[in-house]
Every structure is written in C-alpha cells, then in structure tokens.
Amino acid sequence: MGYVLRHIQQKIEKTLARGKSILLLGPRQTGKTTLLHKLPLDRYISLANLETRIGYEQDLGRFSREIESLSAKCSHRPVVAIDEIQKIPILTDAVQDLIDRDKGQFILTGSSARKLRKTNTLNLLPGRVIPLHMDPLTIQEMPKEKLLIEDLLLFGSLPEILLEDDPAIREENLDAYVSLFLDEEIRIEAAVRNVGLFAQFLHLAATESGNALNFEKISQDIGVSRATISSYYQILEDCLVGERIEPLSHSESRKRLVKTPKYLMFDVGIRRVSAKLGTKLSDETMGHLFEEFVGLELLRELRYLSPRGKLQFWRDANGPEVDWVVENHGQYLPIEVKWTNKPTLAHAKHLNLFLSEYPAKKGYIVCRIPYRQKFSEQIEAVPWQEIPLLLEEFFKTKS
CA-to-CA distance for 267 and 178, rounded, in angstroms? Predict the structure, then answer.
C-alpha cells in the first residue's frame, strides 16, 4: 500500500512557515502518524509508546529539559511532534511555556478531545496553536481507481482500509476497529460503568446515524435516562467518532421545523459494521449510506475550504426536507442526495421549496450520473465525484 498525499499537509507546512504551532485532532487510523513522518521534524515523540509515556509521567520536567537542550543545539526553532498528546495532557503546560519562550514549534496530535477538554487544553493555547482536523480520505485524495461508490459505502475511506485490495481483509480490519477501539477504548476512556448498556448504545447510535435524533425513544429502548443518552453522544463527539449536525431551524413561513440534531458516524464503513448491517445491502440501505457519505464529504471539504462554513439540514415536521444545507455568511447551498442514475425534476421538489424561502442561488441533486444535467436555471443534477467542485463554486460566487 502506497502513501496518499493529504491536502492538509500543505496547510500544516504553511502554518509552520508562519511560525505557529498546531493541534491536529482526528479519529484513529486517519493517517496522523504517517503524515508526521512526512514532515521535516527535529524530534518525534509518541506517547502511544508505553515506555516513552511512563518515562514522561514519572518525570514531568524531563520533556522541557530535552527541548531546552534541542533548542540550544539547533540553529532554528526546532519542530517537535508529540503524537497522542491526550495520553499526558499536562504536557501542554510545558508546551505553552516553551512556545512563549520561543524554544520551539510543536505539532500536537490526538485521537480524542475528551481529556483535553476536561483539562481545558483546547482553550489553553489561544493564538499560539492553530487547531486542525484530520479526516479519512476525501474524494480529491483518493486514487482514481478507488472511486467506486459501492465499495466506498461498504468499506468507508480510512486510508489503510481503502488502499487494501482484498475485500475480506477490509472487512476484517473494520471489525477489528469496531471491537478494539469503539467497543473497548471509548468505554475505557469515558470510564463507562455499565458496559452492556454502552454497547447497546453504540449499536443503536450506528443504526440511527444520519437520522434526526429522538432522545426519548433511544432512552426508552436502552432503559437509561435522556441525560445519559445525551452524555453518551457527547462521548462519541469527544472521541471524534461522532459528528453532530444541527438543523436549519429558522423560517419566516414555517413553524414546525425539526430542531433536534443528527449524528453521523465519522466513516460509513465503521457505521455499517457497528450497525451489523452485513455486506449484502438493499437499495434503500445503500441510499441511506450514500446520503451520509455525501454529508461527511461536505463536512470534510468544509473544514479544508472554509472553517466558518456550516453544514446543516432542513426538515419540516410535515414532510418537506432537504438532506444537506451548506451555510456561509447568510447564503445557502441546498443539496438533495438520491441513490439514482436517472434524476428527474421530481427529485428537486423540496429544493424548489427551499429556494423559494431562503437566500440560495441554486440547488443540486447529487446522484450517480457521469455528467451534470441542467433542469432549470436553479436546479442541476451533479455526479457525486463533483462534491468538492460544488463547494468551491459556492464559496467563489456566494457574494
């Protein structure tokens, strides 16, 4: 398996060139460690290594002494990477001090924000550290031969899994990820007391991924309080495997817009295996996964193109809905997702409704067609591979 050049690498290099340090968060196996080894580092420290971690835990001053010595030897500010910083979050105190004294630049990576949030680390270094997020592979990063939508919906886009050619090994790796990380490490990190209930929740959260949540129903199904379910979802967010998507909830003409969020599992392959869906899926299930895949791709591209842009959805309790809505400075990009290779104007019914009520220039049907199809001045069907281009066009013409 070869290395895939990640777009975020260029952003990291530019950030370092500006003299800034970086906090790079992202789920496990998205390629953070691999990326670090492609950068011009003066020192790499992995806190995933037990011996290394114990050494720093037993002597917290050791880290500062080592970087002081490294800085004295270098003719430039050394660039130091600390992988899995959440393992010893108190080291960020030393990082802050070293940055303030101009002793180095740092790339701090983490696969969970939970302990960092508890120690307020995410707010500890304002202006000193630029936060970035690393996702699974995006459409633009995937090798062309891997742009097979059926495979992407089944196996997702984690680099190691996507670049593996054997479907059996892909499935085995997904199973291992779910059982070893989702089912064990998240429970341990979150100190969940009732293992059985949390396991039920993980399965149900994967099953309900992409749906507007009904906390009351989920709490009744599992037999725990609504507050507990809410805290479980917060654990998924903190551990970077759950993406919370808020609804577009304001309207001058509609009083029954859905106001509860959706949660997406961060990868559709992980979502499928966690929900125990198997590999022989109906068109209806593929359609649901396709909608989530498009939403995740929009989210990933937004992080790269415009961190201020927001991904939302629009749904009236009486029926009308638009799968995804990108918002930026009061302008909207509404998108309907259809698991079809024969789009029709009927697929744009709710898009037209949205366009009549909100400041949006065009609406799009994302589907499985080879080339764009224009239905009207405001409605166009586009191939799913052009999701990045849609966003680029939107941010260029939003004004």
Answer: 11
Residue type, 370: P
pLDDT in tens, the chain (399 residues): 567 889 999 999 999 999 999 999 999 999 999 999 999 999 999 999 999 999 999 999 999 999 999 999 999 999 999 999 999 989 988 999 999 999 999 999 998 887 777 665 555 566 778 999 999 999 999 999 999 999 999 999 999 999 999 999 999 999 999 988 776 777 776 666 677 788 888 889 999 999 988 888 888 888 888 888 888 898 889 889 999 999 998 876 777 888 899 999 999 999 999 999 999 999 999 999 999 999 999 999 999 888 788 999 999 888 889 999 999 988 999 999 999 999 999 999 999 999 999 999 999 999 999 999 999 999 999 999 999 999 999 988 754
pTM (global) more than 0.85:
yes
CATH of domain 7-133: 3.40.50.300
Residue 322 identity: V
> Could you state, in order of their start, the residue ranges of all structural domains in the chain?
7-133, 137-399
Question: Can you read off the two tokens belonging to residue 297?
Answer: 């791709």
CA 57 to CA 54: how far, in whole Å? 5
b (16+ CB within 10 A) / e for 343-376: beeebbebbbbbbeebebebbbbbbbbeeebebe
